[in-house]
Fold these 3 entries.
Entry 1:
Amino acid sequence: MKLWENYLFKETVKLLITFLIWIYFTFILIDISIHGVHYYTYLKPTFSEIFLFYIHQFIGYLDIFLPLTFLLSTMKILLGMRQEISSLQVTGLSSKTLLRPFFFIAIILGGITYVTLEYLLPYSFAYVEKFQIVHSKHPEKGEKRGLHLLLLEDGSKLIYQKKKRDGLFDVFWIRSPDDILHIKSLEENTGYFVDHLHRNEKGLLENVESFAKESFPKLIPQIEPLEKTKWHTKLSTPLFPLLTLIAIAPYCLRFSRHISIFFYYAIALFSLIAFLMLIDAATILAENQIASPLLLIWAPIGLLFGVFGIRFSKSH
């Protein structure tokens, strides 16, 4: 990096980390004020347990906090160093060249977001859930789980109580409303203690035959809408910092003294929050199979990249 690039990079990273730290402690204060009494009433956690608990909770919101802090730090640098940036532009540097350090940061943040969603988030959710169960009024009840549903490729359904390494236990294989198999233990494609339930002429399910052991065709799980949506989310969310930069950079580099800086911040924050709410709504609709996640999630992102990308490409 050149000297000016190195300076812009370091200053932006410093601000971004500072904003993240402030948001983290603000997040802790707000959550403790709401749930603190609940956690301390029954089994008091240690300081280290609280610290780790909020670290894991913070990770769950990192895909929101990273674009937010990147937005604030980038605007602070670009709007606060107008004279220095104008001097660099006078020397012949284009806007795209000046923004190289910010693009580099956006790519790094995108990578961090992907790693968080793919590897850290499942572990963090499990840690938070365990902490909440242990410090609840009845921790033994928190360990209980309800029924689980697995959709199969042929359209039938598997409903089971629990899953272990050697298979599923207490399984109901609903092949149709009139044809149901109750399987005590299902290991791969072999069922043990199977009852075949069939609806009779009176509309009642009755056990027509039983088997101690029965082999079944290969049960192929269907890709659930939730899993599809998660996959598209993991691919699209890392693009948010890059989209944020493309959207705000042309306006910050052409700052007008006739418009208040507060107005720039207000519009930028409102736009980012509205965009995140839109993506959240699209995710919920995709999970409920209202439309394809490919359309619901990628259409608004592609549209915004197109609109702001055209404006960014015209900046000098």
Note: The chain has eleven helices and six strands.
Entry 2:
Amino acid sequence: MRFVIVTGMSGAGKSTALNMLEDAGYFCVDNLPISLIPKFADLLFVPNSEITKAALGIDVRGGRAFGELEEIIRFLEERNIEYEILFLDASDEVLVKRYKETRRNHPLAGLGRIDQGIVKEREKLTFLKKRAKYIVDTSQMLTRELHQELNHIFVDEKDYRNIYITVLSFGFKYGIPSDADLVFDVRFLPNPYYIDELRAMSGNDAPVHDYVMENEKSKEFLDKLTDMIEFLIPNYILEGKHQLVIAVGCTGGKHRSVTLANELYTFLSEDDKYGVKMEHRDIGKDAITKAK
């Protein structure tokens, strides 16, 4: 029996997670009264039960009874009932934005502001997050990317290290990404922009890629970069970081940064312990600017 408790911040993707698990063959129950959780667990672990995978959605909608949850979790442990906690999280800024887009009220905000409700919710969920086996930060994720991460954990049953990495290329002339954790400047490399036949292409095109990577400085930079990132990621995980944005920038965000970001993405993708995605923020902006 695999028993997953799905919880986390309201607006972080709990409903999406439960729907995905249901599609993957899990027996799913959402918002079960807190007091009924022990009985639900007992039913799941009946010998020869037809149910082999189950997921239970829990959130602060439990009201006052939510305060009993910590005691109930201890009860499960005393009964040797094995469970895993999946905790969906996102930054406060992203959660506020999502609530405004859907025009929903936060369950703990009452007549107050959304951000005040989020603060209260984080406090209430602290003990669950500390016990979570999987923490997925959805701040930078699309729905399909969340599906991929959950599929990685609960269907493919691969090792998961509780961090999601975004590799982002950008152009300095359009500003440094505000959410970047690490920023690397590759403007010291020869610029394909000044090669007539390469100017209209991007780092996604083989001729530009080859031009950039044939330079010895590019190869040396990539070796040093991957070595450092390989060192940093496990240490970030130990410090409890669940979202990492690595930004690689050049002048316009079209040639050199795209090439090196693609190389870094390829390197990170070889280790399926981490969720990784690629984003080229400014790859098409030069053409748009010139058109204007």
Note: The longest strand covers residues 164-171.
Entry 3:
Amino acid sequence: MNRTNESLVALRRILRATEMSSQQLAKSSGLTSVQVRVLNIISEHGDHVPKEIALRLNVSQATVTALIQRLESKGLIARRRSERDRRQVKLALTEAGASALEQAPDALQQIYIKRFENLPAWEQSMIVAALERVAHLMDAENINAAPILEHGDLARGA
């Protein structure tokens, strides 16, 4: 197999792994990887305001609002007014949210993060450079994307 085909096969494997992981997560927990990421963010640092989550996910406030509404309708998070500033809404996991997060299988993204962060800095830099180059080769370097592994439209998974 020539190198062009090898590179296309590697890209297809990455895309397919992302798709399969998203499907497995949805089937086993009823959640998308983005929803699990929001639950993780809330559980890591306690109360969060929606703006903080939008910044952490690198998505719009509107996208986070849709995610929050979906998670709240499932009973996984609760909103409450800040005691210091009544205009501010804080988010917290419910018992059901903590349980769902605990039972959700490790998403492909979490596995990738753990393995990537264990690599030496030079290897991390090489991988980032190669991936940025691939994005350039595919005319994708200017596409705004959140650091979330999920196939399809991010807002769709809200």
Note: The chain has seven helices and two strands.
